[in-house]
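Hey L., structure's done. Input below.
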Amino acid sequence: MSRRSQVWYMDFIMSFFIFSVVIVIFMHFIVNKSEESKVVQDQLLTDARIISNSLMLPGYPLNWDHTNVDRIGITDKNSKFNRTKLLEFQKLTYSEMRKRFDVPHDFMIFFEGDNRKSVPVFGVCSVGHPDMDLSSKRKIAYYTRNIEDAVLDPDSHEVYDDLDEMGITAVDTFCEEGHTKCNGLTAELENDLFDYDLLIVENGDLDLVPSFLSWAEKGLPTLLIGDFTTAGMMGMNVDHTETVGSTDAIMAKELPFLDLTADSMISMNHDYVVLTNNDPNVIVETYATSDEWGTGIMAWTYSDGTIYHFSSADILSPPDFYDQLKLGIYDLANHNCSKLDLSAVDYSNVVKLSRFLVKKNRVINMVILTWD
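Output:
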């Protein structure tokens, strides 16, 4: 073998040796990194299981709130959401949540409905890491013909108390005539209607708000309360009967946003409006009826929207009705959630765990994300 061939051979051997060492080091690094990642993912999964197992129980003490909770749980039994406990859970600070769950890693909880779309549960979109909040600030529009005769006056009624602490940034009042309590006239509501997330109408003439139908068609929620003159444009006939004193109605079934159970009693002190459907494309549901006075609470689906009608805002019983209505208003205003965006936080590993819970006979997927 020539000297030149020997030099080339030695160079080849040395290069091959260096290359082999690099490959061994690289593979060792990859294996160690993979093993480390698996260890971290196992730890994250353990945290997710701790959180989900806790949430699937009623918690401790049994009727806990955010001031005295020792163990966080958001169900009653049979995997059913407890509205009060979920809202109390949301009031805890993130550091308090981590302390109660006793987990070292970051986390968030959110909810999915059909097609894995994020949905609110009793108005709650997500709980956990503050940078991963899927909710957004909400605004409510309230409209009445005469603010002086209104029961649910936003300026004074208890149903609006503390809504700002629940993420409702504004409740704007609109009237047909100028008043110091009103933020604007009906024409201004017409122009700004789609800036709001919930429309509450008490004794209002919605013929003066033509955008109402477009609002309903987009699936945006509406509460109609008391006497109104617009049912005809939605395929309804209205028989108006004025009552004196209180009248009782029986709940036929539970409303999606209130805790009035079937066969329970609701007493109203105002007018009953009997609504007859003439449009086969409008689906009508009756929630409360009176043999003497007709429909007390009803809902009808107009295009993609559901419109709820109470024949009176003056509710005498049950005694906690307005507390329920406050939570219902919050629930209706938070009718959608933002999309999940992990770019809001720094992370190396993420674990997702899902558990099924029930909200008013609807199966909801509760998702726990943990990351490091």
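The mean pLDDT is 81. The chain has two domains: 46-134+348-371, 138-333.

-- N.
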